[in-house]
Write a structure and sequence with these properties.
Blueprint lengths: L9 H28 L8 H24 L6 H16 L4 E8 L9 E5 L4 E16 L2 E25 L2 E12 L2 E2 L2 E10 L2 E4 L7 E4 L4 E9 L2 E11 L4 E7 L1 E2 L1
Helix pairs in contact: 1-2, 1-3, 2-3
């Protein structure tokens, strides 16, 4: 599978992922400290704390996965989660907290990750982590297990037709999804290949893209006869997660 150079900074994304999650979790600290100043006995329930930590966990995984998909080190997921767990445990003032996690190892995942950018019209960038959270508050103890799965998927289908001895018309359909549900992209780029390399189809005057607003996109363009029938699609979804897929087209 060929790959184009990314022009994004992975380190910035690592920091962003941590910052977003930490800000969410810091709500616990802020609320607690203000409640003490106001002499409020119970500013929010343990269930509220669980909800906040769940949201922070998901945001951390999204940011980490975006970083990895840009070419960042896959170990970033594990190191970010270590820091996240330590942060949550140290900032919980309502009692005692233990936040642990396990990276999915069930096929096709390895170390919590599944990144598959195929030459058969499909691409997946995914992370899956199982969390366990134990909270004690006075005489109350709560144990919560929650999985977090973040999956950005891409599928490409299409055909071409001969419109003259010197040109071919390409028509492809692209489907984008997040966790199996239709999703929108921030950026979508289509490439075609010739013996001279890969070229951006968007630079062709014949290029046309239709966004149906439901995760489905159709693209058409005209290429020279020496095109070798390969196309490739790259997307950044709304969460900044990168996915790509290539496909050898058949004549309609």
């Amino acid at each position: 599978m060929r790959s184009f150079r990314r022009n994004r900074s992975g380190q910035v994304l690592i920091l962003a992922a941590l910052a977003i999650a930490f800000i969410i979790s810091s709500t616990i600290v802020y609320t607690y400290q203000n409640s003490r100043a106001l002499h409020v006995e119970q500013p929010f329930s343990t269930e509220d704390t669980v909800r906040i930590v769940k949201s922070g966990s998901r945001n951390l995984i999204i940011g980490s996965l975006a970083n990895i998909s840009y070419g960042g080190d896959s170990g970033i997921l594990n190191s970010n989660l270590d820091r996240w767990s330590s942060f949550v445990e140290s900032q919980y003032y309502l009692g005692h907290c233990i936040l642990s996690y396990e990276l999915c190892e069930a096929s096709p995942y390895s170390a919590g990750l599944w990144v598959s950018w195929e030459d058969e019209g499909s691409g997946v960038t995914s992370a899956k982590v199982d969390f366990s959270m134990n909270l004690t508050d006075g005489g109350t103890e709560i144990s919560v297990n929650y999985p977090v799965n973040v999956t950005s998927s891409l599928s490409v289908s299409g055909t071409y037709s001969v419109i003259s001895p010197f040109s071919r018309n390409v028509n492809i359909v692209i489907h984008v999804s997040n966790e199996g549900e239709p999703a929108l992209t921030k950026n979508l780029t289509v490439y075609y290949q010739t013996g001279f390399g890969w070229f951006d189809a968007g630079e062709l005057s014949s290029y046309s893209l239709t966004d149906y607003g439901n995760g489905t996109y159709s693209v058409s363009f005209t290429v020279p006869w020496f095109w070798n029938r390969w196309v490739s699609v790259e997307i950044y979804d709304a969460r900044e997660i990168f996915v790509q897929a290539a496909l050898l087209l058949q004549e309609a």
